[in-house]
Amino acid sequence: MAAKEPTDCEMTEIEGQSLRNRKKNHTEDAPLNDQKLQYSVLDIPPWYLSIILGLQHYLIMFGATVTNPLVMSKFLCIGEENNLVKSELIGTIFFVSGICTLLQTTLGTRLPIIQGGTFTFVTPSIAILSLEKWKCPQPSSNSPSGIGENFTATEFNVSADDEDIWKPRIREIQGAIMVASIAQVLIGLTGIMGFMLRFIGPLAIAPTISLAGLSLFNTAASFAAKQWWITMVTIVLIAAFSQYLTNVTIPCFRCQRGGGCIRKRFPLFRLFPVILAISLTWALCAILTVAGVFPSDPNAWGGQAATNLRLDVMQKAAWFRFPYPGQWGVPTVSAPSVFGMLSGVLASMVESVGDYYACARMSGVPPPPMHAINRGRSISSRGDRMMSHRMH
Q: What is the pTM for the complete model shown?
């Protein structure tokens, strides 16, 4: 589904024939209707549906986008209870992700694809932060500030009692991503990516994307294990709504000015499977929280499913916060970090190409041509630099 004007799909034109003509002719090269889409890339849903569908896209990408800062917070030496800093990281990555998505859908591939944080940068970032220089200080009972002997204030440019010891570490990751992303800009602008596609086929793209997701299996299992029953309820609801109830329609009425009310059937489960599943699961958790089913101790099993946790963050966090470049200081650059991050850049390039082809097929449009892929990689690399300049 995508609510885009036809001008946003110019990149899918092949040999001068527009997508609208392809949709009418039902050619074999671009079977637009084989996916049974409710809306194609040329259709414009009503504005109120567009808002709800946009919210659903946000919720779908929420888990993957939030995972990056939550996983990295441990290696950045952000305290387990420092939820305010985590909320700032999450808010920043969502803000920049929205900007990058606008650039990608208008100037990049022009596919209805969301530009979010990538997991391919997580592994090299963890490797960099695992170096002896950036290891987190160990708590020491003999130290009044609770900071171990392996922490030196001069090296990190903070005082021993400063809680922001994570800032030098995130600046190091920022600098590494910014410099390494220059390689993506050059590859996208020079057209090298189109040449590389001659040697990068499905057998190379599919394993790369699979390994990027499988590498975070332990993280997903760790979060799900905090309340397996709620996790299974969410999985079952999403699977039921999106796979088994797609053809079930809900009767509703639509009133028109001067034309009375007409009875229609609305494909609720086909359009909003994720929103329905998350809303029902959250409502169940709220009821169980009020009933006292979940333990009051958040560290106990099942306590993380309560809906009254981390309410202090809403009280401490600012109502409006603009993530500006350099908000945590000037990024630092070192050769080991840059070369280590290049591996993530190369994996991200292959992953993005696979995403472009998958998105095109699911949207019912032809595969993007070489020049569209080159534009997409150029915009993506600039988005990486923008995101790293504000956060990792």
A: 0.67
